Amino acid sequence: MVSAILRSAHRVATRLFAQEGEGRIADRAVDRVQLARTVLGAAATIALILAYNVDRNRWEDAAWGGVANLIVAPFVLLIAGPLVILGFISYAPPHLRPHLRSRLRAPLTAVGWYVLTLAVIGGILVLTAQIDDRDGRSWWEYVLAVAALIVIVWGLPFFLLASLYSARTAFNSAQVHPMLPPVLTMALVWVFAVFNLIGDGMPGGPPVVQFSSMLGGPLSVTAASLWELRRMKSRFGVTLRA
């Protein structure tokens, strides 16, 4: 039963938020580098915790921080993404700008579905929390209770998967241009670095370790994204200023 629900949520989330389309370049070397960077980043975080702050709270903070970043990433994209896309299209040659703007439908559709998902789930849960059954329930309150059950059982897993795929594909932005997802990734990771610095402050350890921990993630993601952009140009002939 649980596996069937998860498969259903995964299928719908993939259909709506992982439409990479013709613009996506399948490059296994890039995928391997991104995977290696993620594994090394996680290992560095664990090593830092073990070396300088071995306590349960630190482990819990790291775990919850990862979950929070997953959920917050699409919201950051909703805010910062339009500015990055506007700059990306403005940087393109004038004769390519109408073509790029015409391909914004896929990202905008994904954004619309994500906002609608959030509004429906949040609205149902808020309304359900306000039900007062001391005087009995009307028929619409029973309907609302059933809707809340569906949201909890199917909607929340779907929302988490939608957040994951939206962050990974940057709301299907590869359909606008293959170079747009790594550009959005670079912008997103530095926005998160600033938020984490403001919210959590510097990590533990000596100054060298602190700055390495704080900047290692954003710099490694930036390096991998720049390498991906260069590889698109040298290996696949993809350019923006063509």
Automatic annotation (TrEMBL):
Keywords: Membrane, Transmembrane, Transmembrane helix. The chain crosses the membrane at residues 35-54, 66-89, 110-131, 143-167, 179-199, 211-229. Signal peptide: none annotated. This is MFS family permease.
